[in-house]
């Protein structure tokens, strides 16, 4: 696992905690902001994956 993926997944702990809080304790959450954060993290993972593949092709 590269450092970029590790950093992104480390930041995913916060929304995961909010989802657990929402599901188990039925607390209020700002769903649109939670979904926006998930989309941003997914885009970050995709961009990091694309960048790592591009870098490997350039080295080869």
TrEMBL record:
The keyword Transmembrane applies. The keyword Transmembrane applies. Keywords: Membrane, Transmembrane, Transmembrane helix. The chain crosses the membrane at residues 6-25, 34-51. This is Uncharacterized protein. It comes from Vreelandella olivaria.
